[in-house]
Design goal:
Radius of gyration: 18 Å
Structural class: alpha/beta
Strand content: 5-15%
Shape: globular
Bound molecules: ligand TUI
Number of strands: 11
CATH class of the largest domain: Alpha Beta
Length: about 325
């Protein structure tokens, strides 16, 4: 059940992809998700190519299942990371925070499946023409760098505009969200925040606990004036952003305030002065469990949701 064309495209059991979160999506997490039947993704973030190569080799040592690498387009190392994923013959590349158009022919030539994250219909259509395999339509409920449109509004508009399969992301963490995404025409889901609270995720425990403590209104969007809005959990840092933004501070000062803060939260566990990127769904996440269990429970719940919907009297 729920075996969609995404499963065939990627050679995976369940149409569930893990978000390629910078600093968070390590080889350990990616391998655990792939071993659990989904598609694990290593987040290249701003890491140099050699570090990405080490993570790819580590993931290969932890799983014999396919996994992918997410390439972040604001990284200064994009060109070298592209060369590395081609040399290492990773199965799948997802991309974020930019237009991957010019790299697509060489990735495809290397036999790599290319699945860009997009937040608009226009970019979806452009990338379909260039020959990407599928698209991840990411709504602004997600954590980290966000677009402007919600998942509920974005996914069906992208589905109607392209012929290739669409994967829904943003605000999905359980079987209800999975069925909702399929109802909107998606052929699978990507989840980030839910997998931060996987046992195998190597983020500092303070980060996981901050997500578990979060409620529905615990996130806020900072950095809008920089043109790169980012959804984070509210804390001392987000409050500082709000103050600077209300004073119409220089973009340079806002950028300086954000520098190194994701690492501070993920690695050092500074969840007050660090950038704790998380989606609006954080309020629904109450436990830490193995990635394989997250996936299995989600699939079981999806079946129950489908049953309960079909039992609603006409
Ligand atoms: O990339 C993400 N989310 C991210 S990346 C990230 S790392 C970071 N670290 C420190 C500060 C800020 C970020 C955290 N979260 N999501 C994928 C995504 N991509 N969402 C939206 C887009 C997107 C936006 C514009 C994709 C393409 C695009 O194209 C613009 C164009 O050139 O047409």
């Amino acid at each position: 059940m729920f075996h969609t064309e995404i499963c065939d495209l990627l050679g995976i059991k369940y149409p569930i992809i893990q978000g390629g979160m910078a600093w968070v999506a390590t080889a350990e997490l990616a391998a655990a998700v792939s071993n659990g039947g989904g598609l694990g993704i290593i987040g290249a973030g701003n890491a140099p190519a050699d570090m990405v190569r080490d993570r790819i080799r580590k993931a290969k040592s932890l799983t014999d299942k396919p996994f992918g690498v997410n390439i972040y387009f604001m990284s200064p190392f994009v060109d070298d990371v592209m060369k590395t994923v081609i040399e290492e013959r990773v199965a799948v590349v997802t991309t974020g925070a930019g237009n991957p158009g010019k790299y697509i022919p060489s990735l495809k030539q290397a036999g790599i499946k290319v699945i860009p994250v997009i937040a608009s219909v226009a970019l979806a259509q452009r990338l379909e023409k260039i020959g990407v395999d599928a698209l991840i339509a990411e709504g602004m409920e997600c954590g980290g760098h966000i677009g402007e449109i919600t998942t509920m509004a974005l996914v069906p508009q992208v589905v109607d505009a392209v012929k290739i399969p669409v994967i829904a992301a943003g605000g999905i963490a359980d079987g209800r969200g999975f069925i909702a995404a399929l109802s909107l025409g998606a052929k699978g889901v990507q989840m980030g925040t839910r997998f931060i609270c996987a046992k195998e995720c190597t983020v500092h425990n303070n980060y996981k606990n901050a997500i578990i403590k979060a409620k529905d209104r615990s996130t806020v969007v900072t950095g809008k004036p920089t043109g790169h809005p980012v959804r984070v959990l509210k804390n001392k840092l987000s409050h500082q952003f709000e103050i600077l933004e209300s004073r119409r501070a220089d973009i340079k000062d806002l950028e300086a305030l954000g520098t190194g803060r994701l690492r501070a939260a993920v690695v050092e566990g500074d969840v007050e002065n660090g950038s704790v990127m998380a989606g609006q769904i954080a309020g629904m996440i109450n436990d830490i469990k193995p990635a394989a269990e997250i996936i299995k429970e989600l699939m079981n719940e999806a079946k129950q949701v489908l049953d309960s919907i079909s039992n609603i009297p006409e």
